[in-house]
Amino acid sequence: MATRESGRIRDVEKKRVLDDLTRRRRARKALEALEQDNFHEDPHADLVMSKKIPKFNNSLDNPRKKGRKSRGADYYRIKYRKTFQQLLEEDRQLNADGPNYSTAQAPETNYPQRHFCAVCGFPSSYTCVSCGTRFCCLKCQATHQDTRCLKFVS
Amino acid sequence: MEKICCIDNGACNIKIGNITDEKPLVIPNCIMKAKSEKRRPFIGNQIDECRDISGIFYILGFTKGYITNWEVQKNIYDYIFSTEFPVNFSDTKLIITEPLFNFPIIQEAMIEIFFEEYDCISLTKTTAPDLCQYQYTNTQDPDEPPLCCVVIDVGYSFSHIVPFVKGKKVLSAIRRIDIGGKLLTNHLKEVISYRFLNVMDESFVINQMKEDSCFVSQDFNADMAMAKKKYPENKTIREYVLPDCTTIRRGYLQTPGTAKKGDDYQVIRLNNERFTVPELLFHPSDLGINQMGIAEATVDAINACPEETRPHLYANIIVMGGSSKFPGIRNRLQKDIRSMAPEIFTVSVSIPDDDPLTYAWYGSQFLANDPEFDNLSISRQDYEENGVRGVLNENDAQ
């Protein structure tokens, strides 16, 4: 025989709640996205250059003085190809205690964090149970759940 | 006569000119590709020739404010030195800026490129805040030049707060906030894409929108309350007309309801976006970045300096950099720093009247006249005798 149960509790239990770790990962991803230069693909990526264009060698009509030879952009690309992360790591090892890039970072703020609705941008007083995003009213909550909440999980 | 050319090598714009010039040339420091023009990339200000500015793809030599892609950077240099600003390297000394705490390997690359590729006779590395400090201290009261100053450099990749005591940087007191023009543009882009229409591919247009419509709020809560109201009581709300690439080359701001009948252009209604975006500079935590805002970090930086210098530092705060062009930033900083600083100190924040973007560049003339200038620079002879590593070590020792 079926036992009596609360419909509300059943609904809430069905909802997936993101743990702290996942929430932090999402927040980090969002911040990384803000550092990107472009969000779309290179519009010229699939471009096939015509082979008919002759490649001019301008070494004859442009003799460089002193016989110094240009090394070309390739040389520098290969010699100095460290990524930002590698540079940072190297700097940490070489210059461990001095003032460096890592120590110059501004410390944590002493002021409490303010919260804004993720949908409309106004001050918010509510938090989404599933993902921790802020919203300010029922209307914004509905928008949030329809568009963002748990749509991009994992 | 030898000429001296200064290159303020920003991540977004290169400011270049001979120090005797009236003003520098500002050239975007990137290569852009447009959807419409399949065959050619646009280097620097060639973008002005591009008719369709939608979906511009950026290629930058910089990552987080540091040059990591020399191939791109060298292409841009080649273009500038050959077309936009021809430099005769055999009789021109160069002054070039680098980011604070520049990594040794990047310095190496820069020195090698300028001596090997461009055959320059002398290279002086400096930073934009240093130049700014020169410009500031030399243009104030000549009888009593300021002993100390704080430079707030709000740039494209990040913002730095750099206290100077008697012309020297206090390295341990420098503070960096990872918010700059790029992040603000990207944030505005995300907000608009979520609330109105998808503009994720339109960095170029949204960057212009940010420049045209954003301002720094003087009283954040009051402005928020204002933004809640409906038009016409709401004084913040504006419409931004998007460029259509035929008749409207650059978007512009208008008050709602001014559109005439028959105008068929696209508008985006901007409300709280206009001030919440620059607000991030003051409260990075709004976005979840665990750092102090520029006002708080300025106070923190000054507190890290010797106690006897603090009154001088508070009285000489100067703001520069492309992202300090938002209207109202000076007043807001003055107000915020005043409220956090000890009561006995005078707080004075100033911003260059003409252009915070090129302000640092003007300082190069004072650097060039500094009696120390020859010691600070790397000469061709130095380089040839000691090699890249040698010059760098010598330079570091100073």
Automatic annotation (TrEMBL), chain A:
GO CC annotation: nucleus
InterPro entries xrefs: Vps71/ZNHIT1, Znf_HIT
KW Zinc-finger (keyword) present: yes
GO annotation, biological process: chromatin remodeling
Region (Disordered): 53-73
Coiled-coil region(s): none
Pfam families assigned to the protein according to its UniProt record, in alphabetical order: zf-HIT
This protein's name: HIT-type domain-containing protein
Species this protein is from: Chironomus riparius
From TrEMBL, chain B:
A cellular-component GO term for this protein: cytoskeleton
Keywords for this protein: Cytoplasm, Cytoskeleton, Nucleus
The UniProt record lists the keyword Nucleus: yes
Listed SMART domains: ACTIN
InterPro entries attached to this UniProt entry: Actin (IPR004000), ATPase_NBD (IPR043129)
Compartment(s) of residence: Cytoplasm, Cytoskeleton; Nucleus
Family statement drawn from the similarity comment of this UniProt entry: Belongs to the actin family. ARP6 subfamily.
Protein known as: Actin-related protein 6
